[in-house]
Every structure is written in structure tokens, then in C-alpha cells.
Design a protein that fits this description.
By secondary structure, the chain is of the alpha/beta class. It folds into two domains: 176 residues, Rossmann fold (3-Layer(aba) Sandwich); 85 residues, Nucleotidyltransferase, domain 5. The protein contains twelve helices and nine strands. Strands 3-2-1-4-5-6 form a six-stranded parallel sheet, with helices on both faces. The protein has a three-stranded antiparallel sheet with strand order 7-9-8. Helix 10 packs across helix 11. The longest helix has 30 residues. The protein starts with 7 loop residues before the first strand and ends with a strand.
Length: 287
């Protein structure tokens, strides 16, 4: 997390994106598209209402996370607020001083143009508010990559928030820092529906792949850090920061670890951790 004095933060939520992505995360791939007609017809129908409730987004958790970077100067959420699904969130959003930007789809089931409107507003705000230091974009589309890059070129620290599995890797890489909605403090873990046809072996391979990637990232950060600092032992916080710079989507919590130290301990074949008082030092394991 960027540490800036008097940081001023702007938050932009592509609300449809986060709602649909979380719905798919809870109920399975393309679940929202499959249920779209039923949701539009009668969101209060018992089965649909139950599925929507299970995938309800905790807006407060997102805003509280953004507030951790500094003073919230403005917060905007883009969606079709006449839609019954989105309307359920209006009171919650207004209570948190979120500006609701109304968008209408050009045609049935068409995109509502949130990416274009959100991008235009963000760039305009950066010039209108020169003291703005942080931009938080809550979305997952690769369409936002040019926006993240432009914000960084204009000297802003860019934070992305998206749903794991529904966020483009290119968007996460374009941000200074990226957080998965699933791992935000206060967000209740989703009880995901795993398709019966999905082999457990495939699930294990996917998890192993993520674990291997994280291990290689740690090893690379340690090698680069030792070469740069010309010392074996590195501060754990500096190593984590370097890992986040190389891969903004890295999160030990997303991997199931409470702390970065726990993450390192689980990779004792690669790294050694030394804990002295409040100091945490890490080095590559020799041999």
C-alpha cells in the first residue's frame, strides 16, 4: 500500500461489472448471463431472490478499503439504477456518500457504456483536482488498462479492485496495486457452487499452478533484492513490496495465509525467515 501524507483518493465503481462478476464467482461461470432473463423478469421470485442474496456485494467493504489509502474526495458508482437488482443497493450507497451515475444500455442486454463514461470522468477529475493522489478503480475489464496507464503517467497511484477469476490479468498488471474483492476485510467468503462435472484433479492443478507462480515470484524478488542491496537478509516488508510491484495482484491472503510471514514459512524450501522482536528478515535458502 502506498504511504503518502495527506493522500486524497477518488473511487470509481463499474457497479454492474462487480455485481455480475461476484454473482458468477458464487454461482459458477456465466451464471449471471444464464439467469439474466429471470432476474430482469422477477428478481423477487424465491429461487432468484435466494441466488441474488447469496451473491450480494458488500459495498461498505470496498469503500472502507479505499479509505485506507487516504481521504475520500469523491466516490462514484456507474450503473443502470432503474434496474431492480442495482436499486437494492441505492440506500446503502447513498448512506456512504456515493454519487450514483445513471447509465442506460443502448439495447436489450447491451453494455451500458460504463467503461467510457467512467474513464472520461476519471481523466477530467485528475485535471480538475490536481491534488488527487490515488485513483481506485473497481472493475475487471481489460478495457480499463489504458485508463490505469494514463492515471499512472499523470502521477497518480492506481489501485484496482476486482473479483478473482473475473479480472483481466492485464488490468491487474497495469495498476500499482491490485486487490481481490474476495480478500477485502469484512467480505464473507463465498460458498461457491462447484460444477459436478469439474474433476477434482483439475481443481488441484489450478491451485498448484497459483502456488507455484507465487513461489517463483518470491524467489525472483529475493534474488533481485539481494543483488540490489548486496546483502543476504532482506526486510520482509520490502520483499513483499517488491513482489507487489512485479505482480500487483499478489496477495498472501488470497492464497490462504493470514500474514506474509506465514506465506514465507510455507515456502521453507526456497526461503528462510528470521523473526527478532518486531523485525522480520528473509533470505534465499542456500543450496
Amino acid at each position: 500500500m502506498s504511504d503518502q501524507t495527506n493522500a486524497r483518493v477518488a473511487v470509481y465503481l463499474d457497479f454492474d461489472n462487480i455485481v455480475m462478476s461476484w454473482y458468477d464467482s458464487v454461482h459458477g461461470r456465466n451464471a449471471y448471463a444464464k439467469d439474466r432473463q429471470a432476474i430482469a423478469t422477477d428478481p423477487q421470485a424465491p429461487e432468484i431472490a435466494e441466488r441474488l442474496a447469496a451473491a450480494r456485494v458488500d459495498v461498505g467493504a470496498i469503500i472502507d478499503f479505499a479509505a485506507g489509502f487516504g481521504t475520500l474526495v469523491l466516490t462514484r458508482a456507474y450503473a443502470d439504477w432503474s434496474s431492480p437488482v442495482n436499486a437494492e443497493y441505492r440506500d446503502q450507497l447513498v448512506a456512504r456518500a456515493v454519487d450514483l451515475v445513471q447509465l442506460f444500455p443502448a439495447a436489450a442486454y447491451a453494455k451500458n457504456g460504463a467503461d467510457i463514461r467512467l474513464a472520461v470522468d476519471t481523466v477530467e477529475d485528475m485535471f480538475r483536482l490536481p491534488d488527487l493522489t490515488h485513483v481506485v478503480v473497481v472493475a475487471g475489464d481489460s478495457d480499463y488498462v489504458p485508463l490505469a496507464q494514463r492515471c499512472k503517467r499523470l502521477g497518480r497511484y492506481v489501485v484496482g479492485v476486482g473479483v478473482a477469476g473475473s479480472t483481466a490479468k492485464s488490468l491487474a498488471a497495469a495498476c500499482d496495486e491490485f486487490a481481490s474483492y474476495d480478500t477485502l476485510p469484512g467480505v464473507a467468503p463465498a460458498v461457491r457452487e462447484v460444477p459436478v462435472a469439474e474433476p477434482k484433479r483439475k481443481q488441484r492443478r489450478s491451485k498448484d499452478s497459483v502456488e507455484d507462480t507465487a513461489t517463483k515470484l518470491l524467489e525472483r524478488a529475493l534474488r533481485l533484492g539481494q543483488e540490489k542491496e548486496d546483502t543476504e537478509w532482506l526486510h520482509a516488508s520490502a520483499v513483499k513490496q517488491h513482489m507487489r510491484r512485479m505482480d500487483p495482484s499478489f496477495s498472501e491472503k488470497a492464497l490462504g495465509f493470514k500474514t506474509f510471514s506465514d506465506f514465507v514459512k510455507a515456502r521453507d524450501a526456497v526461503a528462510e525467515l528470521e523473526e527478532t522482536g518486531h523485525e522480520r528478515l528473509v533470505r534465499l535458502r542456500e543450496g
